[in-house]
Specification:
Strand content of chain A: 25-35%
Radius of gyration of chain B: 23 Å
Largest interface: A-B, 87 and 91 residues
CATH topology of chain A: Rossmann fold
CATH class of chain A: Alpha Beta
Order of helices and strands of chain B: EEEHEHEHEHEEEEEEEEHEHEHEEH
Oligomer: heterodimer
Number of helices of chain A: 7
Strand order of the largest sheet of chain B: 7-11-6-1-4-5-12
Largest sheet of chain A: 9 strands, mixed
Largest sheet of chain B: 7 strands, parallel
CATH architecture of the largest domain in chain B: 3-Layer(aba) Sandwich
CATH superfamily of chain A: HUPs
CATH class of the largest domain in chain B: Alpha Beta
Radius of gyration of chain A: 23 Å
Number of domains of chain A: 1
CATH architecture of chain A: 3-Layer(aba) Sandwich
Shape of chain A: globular
Helix content of chain B: 10-25%
Structural class of chain A: alpha/beta
Shape of chain B: elongated
Order of helices and strands of chain A: EEEEEHEHHEHEHEEEEHEEEH
CATH topology of the largest domain in chain B: Rossmann fold
Structural class of chain B: alpha/beta
Number of domains of chain B: 2
Bound molecules: flavin-adenine dinucleotide
Strand content of chain B: 25-35%
CATH superfamily of the largest domain in chain B: HUPs
Chain lengths: 266, 337
Amino acid sequence: MEMIVCIKPVPDPKQAGKMTIDRETGTMIRRDVPSVINPLDRHALEASVRIRERHGGRVTALSMAPDDVLPVLKESLARGADRLVLLSDRRFAGGDTLATACVIAAAVGHLGTFDLVMCGDETTDSGTAQVSAQIAEFLDVPNIMHVDDCGVSPDGDLRLHSRNEEGAFTAEGQTPMVVSVTADINEPRYVTLMDVLDSEGKEVLILSADDLPLEESWIGLEGSPTRVLELFEPERKSRAEMLSGTPAEQAAVLADRLRRLGFRNG
Amino acid sequence: MANRQPESRIWIFAEQRSGQPADVVFELLGKARLLAAAPGWKVGALLIGHNVSGTAALLENRGADEILVADNPGLEDYRGGNYLAVVDRAVRNYQPDVVLFGATAMGVDLASRLAARLRTGLSAHCIDLELNEKGELAAVIPWPGGDFLGRIVCPRHRPQMATVSPGIFDVPRSDFPEAEVLTIDGALNSDRGFYRILEKKPEERKPGDLENARVVVVGGYGIGARENWALVEELASVLGGVAGATRPPVDEGWVNADLMVGQSGRTVHPRLYIGVGVSGHLHHLVGVKGTELKVAVNQDTRAAIFDHCDLGLAGDYREIIPALIAALKEPRAGGDL
Ligand SMILES: Cc1cc2nc3c(=O)[nH]c(=O)nc-3n(C[C@H](O)[C@H](O)[C@H](O)COP(=O)(O)OP(=O)(O)OC[C@H]3O[C@@H](n4cnc5c(N)ncnc54)[C@H](O)[C@@H]3O)c2cc1C
Ligand SMILES: Cc1cc2nc3c(=O)[nH]c(=O)nc-3n(C[C@H](O)[C@H](O)[C@H](O)COP(=O)(O)OP(=O)(O)OC[C@H]3O[C@@H](n4cnc5c(N)ncnc54)[C@H](O)[C@@H]3O)c2cc1C
């Protein structure tokens, strides 16, 4: 199986609380919040590496990101990817999901034939959950989201289990395909120092817009149909009535009010 | 706009499973009706499936001017490419100005692919929609990292597309005039690009689900550890309610993702909401609607949640919540009968 896993660097979700935004531009002021690989993309990596371990093939980690996050993305190699491809170009900046998917799909096509593109269902930073299906559309192959189990049948088809709010289904489909995964698909492996050292010689390829069959009007801000018009404060802002006293006193007042409003009988 | 069609259209995707329209369809129809108040605007519901004439009847007086029905055995199950082929063709034929989808599994998948096929913009998980006199749609979304909302527009591409989470818009109470039902082309020219469904299992909806709960107690990152989660559950249970969570407890693995309330989780409509160790990001708060009383327990008096609720308790929840549970469990003092 020739597999490509799409990985996006995101601000560490555990420290996201530290970030603020520049109200004028809408961009995040990251302070010292480090980047990590989007958590669900680690599950996607793990799923692909497990398929390779059983059925052979190759796993390529693919990311569209500024090149200063390369060290963070190299974790994918320690997690078992055979090579890392970074799509880095100032002209990619500011892309919405359409422009992002367009660049990623162009890169997938450029890298040769593939059987499976794996993504996370959504990212923790902007989380539109649109990119995987859009990559599939640009590649003109089927896609399934919310996949929590993925295997290969004896005749080489993909066997997928997907679960969403409406229910679950098992599907079978021919490769090539695009799949996006949930956290239930696996427990990503623990990365040891040995894994990191072992991964040091692996191939890293950096591509720019000029290396890919793309037109300027498809990428970055120019290639993005959506625009952020403005940021504004929500209307409803009412300062809460703050209870006073010790924790026990505040709790007693609240319990009494809840009773009087009928939220607790007896 | 100079060359605007005399007729402008807002479409909503009338998602159905086994003939049953998704709740969000009625919500989207209600909103579309409000947006289409200006003269010359029509609301269309796009209904795709097999044997869905009964479904069309359920939608007839819910706010649409027309219901466009594609009925074909190959459309029985959603398999991505099959619905996409039909929606793509319909959009090219009728050229709606706006197309709205529920931010459900089916809606997000279909809308994403359609937007890519048509090379237009798609706004994700909107919490409000506005239409100006030029027919330009602005989609309102919570912005990460602060207490702001953002307006997203799609100035040069059509149709303008957006997804809206279930539970965000209210279902109108009154009936509307009967819609015209039109049959559209549901033919599938090839089976290319579809997967085969081998087996499906509908989700069993449990009573007491978060969405219907009268009382919701949400635990946030401030709960601090999985062991402490029991306090959130216990408070919810004493109040006859259901426990929910913000995203960090889900990310940390303290609770199941089904409990997440907010933009990427569930929308709840409790009479009473209690947020414990929740800072009050809009991503979370947009999922809490129509409450009578909103209470927050947070040790940081500057926490944003105190600007969005009715009653605030400042302090360590590990002291406040056990005391609250004890006080609620106590038999009522005084002379009540
Ligand atoms: C607050 C905010 C709101 C936004 N709203 C919209 C909107 O409504 N519509 C819109 O079109 N754009 C929107 N954008 C822009 C959009 O977030 C970017 O295009 C972003 O680069 C990709 O989207 P995502 O993170 O939402 O990806 P998702 O669709 O959530 O990501 C799913 C998967 O796709 C893969 N993936 C995504 N990005 C990359 C990448 N750069 N490299 C490799 N793999 C990747 C990963 O596997 C990931 O798990 C918004 C941005 C922000 C900050
Ligand atoms: C695209 C996108 C979608 C999102 N969707 C959702 C969503 O659907 N739902 C959601 O919830 N989030 C969502 N988020 C995340 C959201 O932005 C916030 O990060 C999250 O809601 C914060 O959760 P929190 O308030 O529990 O944690 P924090 O912001 O870390 O707040 C914890 C609070 O606990 C308080 N605290 C700590 N210890 C104690 C104690 N002992 N006693 C009392 N108080 C204490 C602290 O003062 C703090 O205010 C989304 C984010 C993005 C980017």
